[in-house]
Amino acid sequence: MKVQFSGRSLLGMTIGSVLLAGCVSSAALVPSPRQQQTAHGEAGAVTVPIGPPVRPSTAPPPPRGTLDPGFRRSPPGLDDRIASLWRAFPGKTGIAIQRIDGEWALAQRGGDLFPQQSVSKLWVALTVLDAVDAGRISLDQMVRIGPEDLTLFHQPLAARVRAEGTVTMSVRDLIETAITHSDNTANDSLLRTVGGPKAVRAFIADKGLGAIRFGPGERLLQSATAGLSWQQSYSVGRNFQAARSALPAATRRTAMDNYLADPIDGASPAAIASALTRLARGTLLSPASTEYLLGVMSRTRSGPKRLKAGLPDGWQFLHKTGTGQDLNGMTAGYNDIGIATAPDGTRYAIVVMMGNTTASIPARMALMQAVSGAVAEFHGR
């Protein structure tokens, strides 16, 4: 099934009433039965599903004379389609597409910085796995998580910590939980284990990933975006939301405007597409770590109606979503980034980032589906 949306139909969709509460990637959406196969265990425990391996391609490009037409240039019409979708959508939006096993890339507002939100969990996982490759960390290393380590918004681990007092998890299980469940506490625990934000920024710089920033961690990022100073009591229940609601409207607006003007966790769609391409090609991590991380990303549960839903049957998709806080119907960061694989094995990095938009949730998802659907439609032309 090929999904096509015109800019007119995107703008004509009714405004939904769904409100986002921070870095919770489509948690309100109900996945299909197949997507519900990964489940929570007792007392809020997160199970670690075992999926089929996703192997990076290490084969060299085919001889020059056997290259398909889409290897060196984007399919005719794809750039125009993406540009049309981009122009029609309200708010600041960035789109980037790169053929992983080819030589072309295209983008709209591809060099601008957009809030990443939970997309940044990918850089934490990469940094940790780079440390694993260097022998500084083991996937089986155990990490203690106590009440003092809890964050805010989406953190399924919090129920276990509150019930048991402390929880100990392996680095392997924390990566799985942080990526597939977008658990903020799991991610911050990994961040603490690998050396904090400085370690992630060093990885990004050492690998030459370009215009990708990394923020101060979930607690400081979200509290600053709301106009608050972090207090550990905000990690309990809805204390953060209550404190945020008690702020003067002008304080919240100023904090949000400052964040959007210069996002501390900002990244450009083009840089992310390039990083995904390098990950898929196996040039960022060891072969074992590359295969492992691609496999984890293939089990991501968030955002089933974002980019993934625009791809026809037979295509595979592995990804990471990100969703920011909402203020008066405007969301600061609504993203999906991933790697799409066609039935013939051709791979594309696809990035859609919404820096701020008041479009309804269905309209945002429709744009993403239109972008991935266009990649599939023009594939092979």
UniProtKB/TrEMBL annotation:
Segment forming the signal sequence: 1-21
GO molecular function per UniProt: beta-lactamase activity
Alphabetized Pfam families for the sequence: Beta-lactamase2
Keywords (A to Z) from UniProt: Hydrolase, Signal
EC nos: 3.5.2.6
Family: Belongs to the class-A beta-lactamase family.
Residue stretches making up the Beta-lactamase class A catalytic domain: 95-354
Gene3D superfamilies: DD-peptidase/beta-lactamase superfamily
Lineage of the organism: Bacteria, Pseudomonadati, Pseudomonadota, Alphaproteobacteria, Sphingomonadales
Chain spans, region Disordered: 34-75
Protein name: beta-lactamase
InterPro entries per UniProt: Beta-lactam/transpept-like, Beta-lactam_cat, Beta-lactam_class-A
PROSITE patterns noted in UniProt: PROKAR_LIPOPROTEIN
Protein source organism: Sphingopyxis granuli
Record flagged with keyword Hydrolase: yes
UniProt keyword annotation of Lipoprotein present: no
NCBIfam families: bla_class_A
GO biological process: beta-lactam antibiotic catabolic process; response to antibiotic
Biased composition (Pro residues): 50-64
Chemical reaction(s) catalysed: a beta-lactam + H2O = a substituted beta-amino acid
